[in-house]
Design goal:
binds copper (II) ion; 4 domains; 31 strands; Immunoglobulin-like; 6-stranded mixed beta sheet; mainly beta; 6 helices; binds CU-O-CU linkage; 488 residues
Length: 488
Amino acid sequence: MKKQVNVIRLGIVLLLFAAISFIFFPNQAGQISGMGMMNMNMSGEVTTELVPSNEPSNKLNLPSILEGVTNPDGEISYTITAQQGNTQLKEGAATQSYGYNGSILGPIIRLRTGQQVSIQTENELDTATSFHWHGLEVPSNVDGGPHSPIAPNQSVNLEFTVNQEAATLWFHPHPHGETAEQVYYGLAGLIYIEDDHSDSLAIPKEYGINDFPVIIQDRLFDENNQLNYSTAYSSDGTYGDTLVINGTINPYVDVKNEKIRLRLLNGSNARNYQFHLSDDTSFYQITSDGGFLNEPIPMESLQLVPGERAEIIVDLSSYTMGDSIQLMTGNVPVLTLNVTEETTKEDVPLPTTMNTITHTADEVSPDKKMTFSGMGNMVTIDGKQFDMDRIDLQAKVGETEVWEIENTRHMMGGMIHPFHLHGLQFKVLNRNGAIPPENERGWKDTIALYPGESVQIEVEFPEKGIFMYHCHLLEHEDTGMMGQILVE
Ligand code: C2O
Ligand code: CU
């Protein structure tokens, strides 16, 4: 009886919220783009707004390039240690944080196509973690998902061969239910894969001179400069009001008036970004998640959802000493580029052909269909929440399949779910039957699913094992918006 009353009461409350939301946000249900800046949770509140920071500007922190040891048989070995530390993020007290081989974020792991790699992964945290290589095509026992936790003070050695083309990937923890918190405290790093083809392209590649990593995260600080995950937590995504780029607030770089390559990673728990340049000039996107696009795509704005990467070229050749241009998201600066020196290099045009990826947008009858739905603690895939003991889907290694992924719209309008699949790079065939934008016609491992949208992707698993697919809004993932596929 009590239960019934509660159910009725919940029903009335939900109806009320729906009514209020239609009064105050009449367009919400029909609104697709820009949802990221105005996400609402079940109680109808707008999530924490991003604001420009009052902190002084700081030189952009550049992650170190991890030194490997090359064994006599040609294999390269690296050591990555997850640890706790203190980082000077703001003026005043240092912030307690997590990092790989340091106090926050991690070094860049450089890999080459065809190379044999061994990585010693070590956990010096006082809680279990795992090491997931987002975008890397490796067997599932190397993939570092929720099946592979490493207890405190334990280490595990991983061996694999790099079997994919040049790309900017990343690594982060993936222990079930704890991913969001560990990423929030600072566990994330970049992986650069290079190959003969990327070596040969006429694009900027001098690290820290004209080729910069840009890890974009939003954080909420308390009055003691601490990140308090449980206070900042929201089941529809933990948002901060302050941008932290490579662990730097209000960052700038000094550059020459030449082409500048920015390797962007949305490493945030939940926030979607819409990047543009402060003078509204266009830039070129040259890669998607898994490698080079066929040609550079001129763009004036670029959206990245959590987990997505894009390399862009900002051409400063028509600027002069003393000029400044900012990469922005909305009205908030992400990174300031100060032109402080005249280049002595000849300005060569960008390559016109960078890859040969074929693309068809034809709608086909899918081999698999899945539905992402809900918000808050009610998020599901196909009506279910994650169960480590349940295999949700099966596939055969080396077989091409078309998946249709739907994001249901509900009475509150719904929200973007960033879809991510482990173990491979896929192609986006069509969105609601239409050809995807040009910058999505390359290799992808993470895509935005808009409310009410249905997306067809083409997948082919190169390796066997159990792989995860999930929402990369990390709080949704931790709540259970995740499934697993057995590949044999
Ligand atoms: Cu970047 Cu399953 O995660
Ligand atoms: Cu989601």
